[in-house]
Amino acid sequence: MNPALIFLYVPGDRPERFDKAAGSDTDAIVLDLEDAVPLAGKDSARIAVGEWLASPDRAGVPAWVRVNPGPELLDDLTMAVRAGADGVWLPKVDDAATLDRVDGLLTELEAEFGGPRTPVSPLIETGAGLCNAVSIAAGPRVAFVQIGEVDLAADLGVSPVVGNELLWARSQVVAASAAAKIRPPLAAASPDIEDVDGYEVETRQLIGLGFFGRACIHPRQIAPARAGMTPAESEVAAARDVLSAFDAAGGAAATDSAGRLIDEAVARIARRTLARQST
Questions:
Q1: pTM of full prediction above 0.90
Q2: Does the pLDDT at position 244 exceed 90?
Q3: Is the dihedral of CA 17, 19, 23, 29 positive or negative?
Q4: pLDDT value at position 279?
Q5: If one looks up domain 6-229 in CATH, what number appears?
Q6: Known binding-site residue numbers for Mg(2+)
Q7: Helix (H, G, I), strand (E, B) or coil at 145
Q8: What is the spatial distance between Cα 159 and Cα 141, in angstroms, rounded to a whole number?
Q9: Which of 91, 123, 187, 226 is the most interior residue, by most CB within 10 Å?
Q10: How far apart are CA 224 and CA 29, in angstroms?
Q11: How far apart are CA 85 and CA 89, in angstroms?
């Protein structure tokens, strides 16, 4: 089965949206207890998310929880493990020590509630986090890394002008993920939910930079995000041709039907192309 490509955010204080989001064309949902929920609503949102996650009738798409990084962290993690969340999104990770601390907390909670090992996706949202991207990507439980682009831009003092102001930051996180030998980073959501054509184009550009999949903050973004990451039929055909020739050669250097040299690196690119097909 292909890994989840589309992750749809759902505000944790809007339980009437949970089932609808899970039943959409997304591959996974992210129940957000952080930015989407005002301080006064944190407790009630945590209860609502926990009840929905623990319900035997909830839809089968993977459901992750974006927890709060502050005083609510332990309560959020406790709820996520007890209710059976598929993973945790951890905001504002500045260093690997944060991941070590969360790993310890999750280990204790999993022992207490008998749950499976909970994967974590850290969000890099500050200059400090960006400078520590390599150690963060290599941290315990990390499934994939993300950039909180709005927060990072604010911390760096970046003002969008031509659209590539965060190119260096994005490439840093892609390289850090490759060095850690984990899944490539998930492309960040965009606050613009009206420009669907632009969202598709931007998604395709981000995939070209080395990202894999995309977060969405509105169901309207799902279709253009999926279109932007789905390879064209010609790309799929070429990838299959590469892998067929490579496999026929027993994994040794070979040539495809067009006479181009194939080695393991070319085969890896082909496998990744096929992995971007719609799930």
A1: no
A2: no
A3: positive
A4: 47
A5: 3.20.20.60
A6: 125, 151
A7: coil
A8: 33
A9: 187
A10: 17
A11: 11
185 DSSP 8-state letter:
P
Taking the C-alpha atoms of residue 83 and residue 65, their distance in angstroms, rounded to an integer, is 11
Contacts for 73 with CB less than 8 Å, ≥ 6 apart: 67, 102, 105
**For the segment 192-233, what is each residue's pLDDT rounded down to a tens digit?**
888 889 999 999 999 999 999 999 999 999 999 999 988 777
H/E run at residue 127: helix 127-131
Could you tell me the sign of the dihedral formed by the alpha carbons of 106, 108, 113, 114, in that order? positive
Domain with CATH 3.20.20.60 in the chain: 6-229
Annotated binding-site members for substrate? 66, 125
The residues facing 120 across adjacent strands are: 88, 142
The DSSP secondary structure of 231-259, one letter per residue, reads PPHHHHHHHHHHHHHHHHTTTS-EE-TT-
The beta-strand segments (E) located in the chain are 6-11, 28-32, 63-66, 87-90, 120-124, 146-147, 214-216, 254-255, 261-262
Phi, psi (rounded to 5 degrees) for 170: -60, -45
Per the listing, tokens 């499976």 go with: 116
Query: In terms of Cα–Cα distance, which of 47, 149, 20, 5 is closest to 91?
Result: 149
Longest dimension (CA), the chain: 64
Q: Which of 275, 196, 210, 265 is nearest to 240 (CA)?
A: 275
| Closest by CA position to 65, among listed 151, 79, 270, 20 | 79
**Can you say which residues are annotated as belonging to the binding site?**
66, 125, 151
